[in-house]
Amino acid sequence: MHHIRTVTGPLDPSTVTGPVLAHEHLALDLRRDSDDEAVLDARHTDPVVRELADLRETFGLSLVVEQTCRGMGRDVAALARLSTASQVAVVAATGWYYEPFHPHGVGTTDVGRLTDTLVRDVHEGIDGTGIAPGVIAEAGSHGERPSEPERRTLTAAARAAVRTGLSVATHAHLGVGGPAQLDLLTAEGLPPHRVALGHQDLLDDPAVHRRLAAEGAYVSFDTVGKNGYQSDGTRLRLLLELIEAGHADRALLSCDISRHGYLTDEGGTGYGHLFRSFLPALREAGVDADTLDLITRRNPLRFLAGADPRERTDD
């Protein structure tokens, strides 16, 4: 498999022995008029580092895919500091979130210029840091069909992915719209195994999950622990249905920590909820150790490296 770009340099997937958090935020700012809590910044550096270091020591956490992109308060220099301090590798992202968070002017910029912007991030680094993204994410839309500006930003994500070899992870708002996202991305020539459809654990529709997986895309159960949106019991049932349908090789898992109140330091479930609560529940339901390793390590590594899971790899 190809090396994975992290904020501290290239990473050989074969050296990653522990689990991966496939969709997280370590530094972001989603504050708008109605939501002052949706921020992780310098005030939260120490608690974030403590959590990551503890998960590395306790559960072997090896890599975090940090999906904060343009318009979300991205700070890749902070990611490099967090990664170095915690000794956990971190992948940074580029792209555009869903339309309410599009920076001014994106809605009137043509796809070619949007694509060039993302390609420049990949080839030259983000915001003058020299730090390159390792994934195009979280490329967003809301509703069953993307809005016109979202069609353009998703098309740019797909074209940039084709040009750079990176994969695309999406934000399907509340789990809705994954099939339309996949159709749009693959229409630009992006293979489905280089697409991960986000927040599918918020959509209680196993048939959609099976369809996306059967078409070759990754299905992200990435809001584990966010019981205000969906119960973990429902998430567990949906994931078990996907596994039983033969698609364990298309599932990804994460917690999508996106507010400082989710940190364990503030009484939240934290980045480790997946390891402390959800994976034990999967084991209790009869999922074996090899399948858990597939979902938490081999799948996200293959996704990031752009490797087709149908091809045998030495992992």
TrEMBL record:
InterPro entries: Metal_Hydrolase, Phosphotriesterase. The keyword Hydrolase applies. It comes from the Bacteria. Keywords: Hydrolase, Metal-binding. Pfam families: PTE. The keyword Metal-binding applies. Belongs to the metallo-dependent hydrolases superfamily. Phosphotriesterase family. PANTHER family: PHOSPHOTRIESTERASE-RELATED (PTHR10819), PHOSPHOTRIESTERASE-RELATED PROTEIN (PTHR10819:SF3). This is Phosphotriesterase. It comes from Streptomyces althioticus subsp. attaecolombicae. The lineage of its organism: Bacteria, Bacillati, Actinomycetota, Actinomycetes, Kitasatosporales.
